[in-house]
Amino acid sequence: MGPNDERAPHKVALAANGDAERRAVGDPRGASAGSSVAFSVLLAASALAIIGTLHFVAYVVPTEATMGIVQKIFYFHAPAGYAMYLGATVCFIGSAGYLARGTQRWDSLAKAGAEVAVAMGVIVLVTGPLWAAKAWGVYWTWDPRLTTSLLSVLIYIAYVVLRAFTGDSDAERKFAAALGILGAANLPIIHYSVKMWGGNHPTVIMGKGGGLGHPDMKIALGFGFLSFTLLTLALVWARYRVDLASARLAELEQEALEAGIGED
Question: pTM of the full predicted structure?
Answer without folding.
Answer: 0.81
